[in-house]
Specification:
Number of helices: 11
Largest sheet: 8 strands, parallel, barrel
Structural class: alpha/beta
Helix content: 25-40%
Radius of gyration: 20 Å
Oligomer: single chain
Bound molecules: ligand PBG
Number of strands: 12
Strand order of the largest sheet: 1-4-5-8-9-10-11-12
Length: about 325
């Protein structure tokens, strides 16, 4: 018993209704965090390596926020393209209370009060060298960077950000930011830690998007994780949970689905995955050439994250996916 022909797995695949009835994982708009790039200029700007994505003005952002809310997308994650003239060695613009990010947070909250706002905590959009932290000679100074990240997170929280998402990979920053948020009374501000963030080639188009590509000197291998490591992701997450993270992120997404599964199996904390710019660019490039069905591959890749155990996915596709899902 249990063997062919008594068992035929194709029986359950023969009708649309049986396939729907026994489907194990599903993707809905509730799973999506929409990553959007914003600009401090007056007109939206296309991003060559990310067809279909443009840097939004604050006006465009307000419109996007309303669309997201109407589509049932829970939250936006915003990434700034900063005027190069405002960048410096230490990323001072990151803590400007009247900077692009605080203004964007207020814009979203005004346009769509029930939409969550998630902000990257890292210095790379604001530094002339494109690194996520402050430099001491050639190296990224961990503890000096934390001081700046604390300020950056507080500025975000004061402006109304719901979730601070440190993506810098400094050691100890989750605890330090949590402590500062508590001290300043922002005890409801959540922390989504980019806990398992790898030094990846898949961030290429993003660096064009935020204008740090030309600036970046060297690579980020002394702070982001080695793509060869998995056990280390467990250590990163263990520490971040102990330090007060509410949610954790794996990044990039599809090439690291094993890490999503590993974390989902080992921790009782929501695990998110970031379908990064290079993943988006690959699907778009192949679709533009007629080599794959873009919409189908978009939805399949997003469902894969659910199958791997992710609570949700940060993606540039959120609006298109929510529309395709018919929500
Ligand atoms: C940096 C940051 C990066 C991304 C989000 N935040 C790039 C990097 O670490 O160099 C990448 C996002 C993407 O590729 O879509 N703090």
């Amino acid at each position: 018993m249990g063997l062919f022909p008594a068992t035929r797995l194709r029986r359950l695949r023969q009708h649309d209704w049986t396939r729907r009835l026994v489907q194990e994982n599903a993707l809905t708009a509730n799973d999506l965090i929409w990553s959007v790039v914003i600009t401090d200029q007056d007109t939206p700007e296309p991003i060559a390596a990310m067809p279909g994505v443009e840097r939004l003005t604050l006006k465009g952002l307000a419109k996007a926020a309303k669309e997201a809310e109407a589509l049932g997308i829970p939250a936006l994650a915003i990434f700034p393209h900063i005027d190069p003239a405002k960048k410096d060695e230490d990323g001072a613009e990151a803590v400007n209370r009247d900077g692009l990010i605080p203004n964007a947070i207020r814009t979203i909250k005004e346009a769509a009060p029930n939409l969550g706002v998630i902000c990257d905590v890292a210095l790379d959009p604001f530094t002339t060298h494109g690194h996520d932290g402050v430099l001491d000679g050639e190296t990224i100074d961990n503890d000096a960077t934390i001081e700046r990240l604390i300020e950056q997170a507080l500025v975000q929280a004061e402006a109304g950000c719901d979730v601070c998402a440190p993506s810098d990979m400094m050691d100890g920053r989750i605890g330090a930011i949590r402590e500062a948020l508590e001290f300043e009374g922002h005890y409801n501000t959540m922390i989504l830690s980019y806990a398992a963030k790898y030094a990846s080639g898949f961030y290429g188009p993003y660096r064009e998007a935020i204008g740090s590509a030309a600036a970046l000197k060297g690579d980020k291998k002394t702070y982001q994780m080695n793509p060869g490591n998995a056990a280390e992701a467990l250590r990163e997450v263990e520490l971040d949970i102990a330090e007060g993270a509410d949610m954790v992120m794996v990044k990039p997404g599809l090439p690291y689905l094993d890490i999503v599964r590993l974390l989902a199996d080992n921790f009782d904390i929501p695990v998110f995955a970031f379908q990064v710019s290079g993943e988006y660019a690959m699907i778009e490039a192949a679709a533009a050439n007629g080599w794959i069905d873009g919409e189908r591959c978009m939805l399949e890749s997003l469902l894969a994250f659910k199958r791997a155990g992710a609570s949700g996915i940060v993606t540039y596709y959120a609006r298109r996916a929510a529309m395709a899902l018919g929500s």
